[in-house]
Specification:
- The two termini are about 40 Å apart.
- A seven-stranded mixed sheet has the order 12-27-28-29-25-26-13, with helices on one face.
- Strand 1, helix 2 and strand 2 form a beta-alpha-beta unit.
- It is built from 13 helices and 29 strands.
- The chain is α/β, with parallel strands linked by helices and about 550 residues long.
- Bound molecules: adenosine-5'-triphosphate (ATP) and magnesium ion.
- The site of adenosine-5'-triphosphate (ATP) has 15 residues, from helix 2, strand 8 and helix 9.
């Protein structure tokens, strides 16, 4: 859909209103402001699509700004992963910015605030400060250090910067109002001492600015017109504006903050802190584990950027939080992969079929269409021989009329090939079927033009030729959490709902054309689902991830439960 034709979301309405009130269109500017303390997740995708979508709609610049004010939790690895993911999603940022690049400017402004009597150094313990904070219904109490002289404040603040003091000994606070009804306005902390090296500024600084002080001023420095953030920042807006009041010059653009609802996805968690826990406690194998709701995990799982963008577009932007069902995300990846993924045959749970009337030494190469949805995808050839694998589930000795697969005395068509009939089967001592003896109809080959080649039988099965099949590792994923909203329970931890069976690894048999496949290539394994090649693959050993099964089986399992 073109950007113009879509219905406007409420943020776009706000921008439209500003434009109609005379705001110059060429001054529109947006930013996506991740904190580099983890990998981006599917919730962030909504924010990315919103901000960069606005950029595309209005042809305005969008900055990628790292909100890197906490050296304890932030790392270069995360910066790199975030850049990779935003790029992969298909967006181009104007400038790569870092809040840490503004540390000097922020410091200078803080000094200005002190000089204007708007900030002071507090030397109490954090416990004492907390005890003076009050409650939503009771006012706070002024700090005994609130009325320090400007000179003393300047000296102390400089000493903090020079590294003269221990962590926790002093903080810089804005001097606003300890009786304000908005508790965030009760002399919020602007700076704290941290003797920690920063991934960009190294040991240049040992005082670090707090989020509230940093964010709005960074928006102002970059001249961001609309600073969009999630709802939990709504009460911060008053402070955002107060901090801007202290620095904004009349002739410059004054950014404005607006809020939208966080997106939550069912059967998972979208919080970097919680995702970090999954990584650190080895519930998953890393941030890009294909079970993770991170952009990197989804990519590795076989999601396409287009499917994630379409998902974000469909759910849109909301004013209130709600839970989006993960099956909607799966719907979008199926829809996209259906168009682009070549069809191939692979058997996950093999049982051997021997075609008694087929010559032992023969191999035939049958023509197979790569993608019925895409004519340009062409054909390939798949080998057919006397011994084949089919899925165990596709054969029953006896079954009712509704079973359209193979049963004794019954016929099915082999995809791209012949009609076969099951004559007998062999079992091991536990009663498991080890081999099915069949006969084939030599005139029934698909596409051969004979009358028999058009003969309709109820079922069509996928298969592979035993001597030609390549064994591959297949990783079958299920929901990472058994509960729809694992982090919404008051009496239980989200970790209590981890699905112990979220990963099953099997050896499957695939048609030999897959030998040429490359990492990240997508395929539809016919009748089974969408799969892609994992980075763990090595020459001679392919590893596949199941992106999604062909149909949404989870819904059915839930119904039965
Ligand atoms: P987390 O709780 O996962 O750490 P965060 O909000 O602390 O998330 P940031 O890196 O600060 O993560 O987020 C960057 C931007 O993405 C912010 O504007 C934030 O509001 C937005 N964002 C984060 N999570 C979501 C979400 N679930 N849905 C929509 N937007 C989100
Ligand atoms: Mg954050």
């Amino acid at each position: 859909m073109s950007e113009e034709k879509k219905a406007l979301n409420f943020i776009e309405h706000i921008v439209e209103e500003d434009l109609s009130n005379g705001f110059p269109k060429e001054q529109l500017r947006f930013r996506f402001p991740p904190e580099p303390n983890g990998y981006l997740h599917i919730g962030h995708a909504s924010s990315i699509c919103l901000n960069f979508g606005l950029g595309l709609r209005y042809n305005s610049p969008v900055n990628l700004r790292f909100d890197d004010t906490n050296p304890i939790k932030e790392e270069k690895e995360f910066v790199d992963a975030i850049k990779r993911d935003v790029e992969w999603l298909g967006y181009v940022w104007e400038n790569e910015c870092y809040a840490s690049d503004y540390f000097q400017q922020l410091y200078d402004w803080a000094v200005q605030l002190i000089k204007n009597g708007k900030a002071y150094v507090d030397s109490q313990s954090s416990e004492d400060m907390a005890s003076q904070k009050g409650t939503p219904t009771e006012p706070g109490v002024n700090s005994p250090f609130r009325d320090r002289s400007i000179e003393e404040n300047l000296q102390l603040f400089e000493g903090m910067k020079e590294g003269k003091y221990a962590e926790g000994s002093h903080v810089l606070r804005a001097k606003i109002d300890m009786t304000a009804s908005n508790m965030l306005m009760r002399d919020p902390i602007m700076y704290r001492i941290l003797h920690r090296p920063h991934h960009r500024t190294n040991t240049d600084w040992c005082i670090y600015p707090m989020y509230d002080w940093t964010h709005g001023e960074s928006d102002y420095i970059e001249q961001v017109s609309h600073s969009l953030c999630t709802l939990e920042f709504a009460p911060h807006r008053e402070l955002y504006d107060w901090f801007l009041d202290q620095v904004v010059a009349k002739e410059k653009l004054r950014p404005k903050q607006r809020e939208f609802a966080r997106r939550n996805l069912s059967h998972t968690v979208v919080s970097k802190r919680k995702l970090l826990q999954l990584v650190e406690q080895n519930v998953v194998k890393g941030w890009d584990d294909p079970r993770m709701p991170t952009i990197s995990g989804l990519r590795r799982r076989g999601y396409t950027a287009e499917s994630i963008r379409n998902f974000a577009d469909t759910i849109g932007i909301a004013k209130r939080e709600n839970l989006v069902d993960v099956s909607l995300l799966e719907f979008h990846v199926r829809e996209h992969l259906n168009k682009i993924a070549p069809r191939v045959m692979a058997v996950l749970n093999p049982v051997k079929v021997v075609i008694a009337n087929y010559p032992k030494e023969n191999t035939e190469w049958l023509k197979a269409e790569n993608n019925p949805e895409d004519e340009s995808a062409g054909d390939r050839e798949v080998p057919f021989s006397r011994e084949l694998y089919i899925e165990q589930e596709d054969f029953k000795e006896e079954a009712n009329r509704k079973f359209f697969r193979l049963k004794l005395g019954g016929e099915v068509r082999l995809k791209n090939g012949y009609i076969i009939k099951a004559e007998s089967c062999t079992k091991d001592k536990d009663g498991n079927i080890t081999e099915i003896q069949c006969t084939y109809d030599p005139k029934s080959k698909s596409g051969s033009g004979t009358e028999e080649s058009l003969r309709k039988v109820k079922g069509t099965l996928h298969w592979v030729s035993v001597p030609h099949a390549i064994p591959v590792e297949v990783r079958l994923y299920d929901r990472l959490f058994t509960d729809e909203a694992p982090d919404s329970h008051k009496d239980k931890e989200f970790m209590d709902f981890v699905n112990p069976d979220s990963l099953r690894v099997i050896t499957a048999f695939a048609e030999p054309s897959l030998k040429e496949a490359q990492v990240e290539d997508h395929f539809q394994f016919q009748r089974l689902g969408y799969f892609n090649i994992d980075v763990d693959s090595s020459p001679g050993k392919l590893v596949f991830n199941r992106t999604v099964p062909l149909r949404d089986t989870w819904a059915k399992i839930q119904e039965k439960a």
